[in-house]
Structures are given as structure tokens and as C-alpha cells.
Amino acid sequence: MENSNIPQPEKILYTGKTHTTGGREGASRSSDDNLNVKLTSPGSSRPGTNPEQLFAAGWSACFIGAMGIAAGKMNIKLPAETAVDTEVDLAVTAGEYSLQARLNISLPGLEPEVAKTIAAEAHKTCPYSKATRGNINVEITIL
Hints:
The chain has 143 residues and is of the alpha+beta class. It has helices at 51-73, 112-125, 127-132, and strands spanning 18-21, 27-30, 36-38, 83-93, 96-106, 137-142.
């Protein structure tokens, strides 16, 4: 492993497997073929998605799950219209490529303070948030 200071998992719940060729101008598919996408660079006129969009989609989905767990611990049901609009920027920082992100959270019908508490707890527990914590700038906004 890359960092021996990181605790090893007790149990693996799932392993996502993909095969990617051609980098940003290629294709990627999952081992179960449920994901099968053409890849393209951001701003390209070619059809396809890019890694930043895929990362944003994965983080959004995971974050909603984490908010559901946080809300459940508070005996609150997430609104059916719960949504997370995630923006992932490909940037240049100190001459090197980097990422930064904004998670714009919609929890309609919940009091603003309750929504903030749920989002803050989700940001502590979401695996994507944990993976990026301290590595990229992340802004969380309650809409």
C-alpha cells in the first residue's frame, strides 16, 4: 500500500472495476458492463464524458447516501427531492494540475440549520469527502 499509516479495512464491501483505454480521449467500461462510456477532454466538441464529470456524479451519489445516514440518526427522513449539484474544477495550482469542488445541496422543506447539520455530518462520513479532505478545496453550500 502507498501509505502504511492508513488503517487497513476490516471488510471490503464492494470493489468497482473498470477498464480504461486512451486516457481522456478513450473509453471506459466496468467489469459488469453497466458503465460503458466514451471519454473526452473537458470543452471538447466530441461526444463523451470526462473524468471530472464522472467524479462529480460519484461524489454526489455517495454524499446523498451519507446524508441519508446522518438524517436517519436524527430521526429525520430526507426529502424525496433531495439533490446535490456537484461542480469539479480541473485547475492549475502552482503550475500543476489540480482539482477543486463545490457541492450545492438541496434539502427542500428542512430548516436551514437542520440541513446544515445533515450536510456537515455527511461531509465527515462520505468516503469521497474523506478521500479529498485536506487535498483539494471543497465548498459546501445549502441551497
